[in-house]
Design a protein that fits this description.
The chain is α/β, with parallel strands linked by helices. The chain is built from 13 helices and eleven strands. Helix 3 packs across helix 12 and helix 6 crosses helix 7. It binds N-carbamoyl-L-aspartate.
Amino acid sequence: MVKHTAQREFEGWKEFCSRPLQERLPLFSRDGRIYDVLFSQQFNRPFLDFLYGLTNRIRRIAKSREGMIWLHKLHAHQRAMLYFVQPSTRTFLSFLNACHILGFHTSEIRDPQTSSEIKGESPEDSIRTFSSYVDLIIMRHPQEGFAEKTAWLLNDFSDRPVPVINAGSGRDQHPTQALLDVYTLQRSFEEIGGIDGKVIAMVGDLNRGRTVRSLSYLMKNYNGVKILYAAPPAFQIGEDIREFLQSHGIHYEEHDSLESVLPEADAIYMTRIQDEHDVKGESQSEYEAFSLGKEHLARMKPHAIIMHPLPRRGEIDVMVDKDPRAVYWRQERNGMWTRTALLAVIFGTDEKIEAEGDLFLS
Ligand code: NCD
């Protein structure tokens, strides 16, 4: 277990973070453009539609050698730092490769034991140090709210702010995972009217999993969506999400079995039981009942898709991978493309991609 150095008190932070989210968000945008990416609540429908259009365009440009080389030049003059002090495979690699597609030079810290935090430097000072060298910080951190604190600190306290992207903050949020999840939903439902009006089942550890929380917030951008939460009672979705859904008029139901959501769902979003958060082994008995096997496939709608943020353990049988409705490997790859598009939006390169990208479309 990595020991983290204590965070420091900064005058103004407590007051800032006690304000309602809507009042804090303007600090994280500049000239109408998203700057720090911290919460799913920052994304509205025009933003999502634009981002996904750009994602499609970048994917097409990247198909040719010439297109890839052109993309690679867009940020060849800039540097990004990946500060991932919590385990990660996909999010780390997809951000790293997204940076490389656009030409960013990258550096990384994945373990505070190898940085000056081991000498007692506070995580806030470490972040300020990164901002001395790079143009962008992408971070995954075990503490909820630390990405926001970092962004606030750089914007308000330092004279060299750089954008901060939250690549997973404790049990709280994983906004860029939600972006790729919704992109996957949109692509999968292209021929059947898009996401509006669809039924999305979220299954597993909904209380401690941050991906379902961020994804739930994004559902407010689509009309008539219904969410079915299937989880053991102890791992049901949090009260704050329920309040959010109610206040936005989003229909949801809570179920205590996987079986009961299968026939109605257009998408089944499986998640892992997050037993790293166990205090006394409370997850042990919950696996089996929330696992999807071959025997469940016939009970799903013919067009329903199976998603998972990954990593998986026992909750999806490997034999399900062969079913054409299993989209989780594609979902994983979508992460690289949506994150590439997101970087372009933060830095305003989307305008160049729109204006000049046609040259590379076959
Ligand atoms: C998720 C995470 O880290 O929250 N993984 C990911 O980023 N794709 C889900 C998980 O760890 O269960």
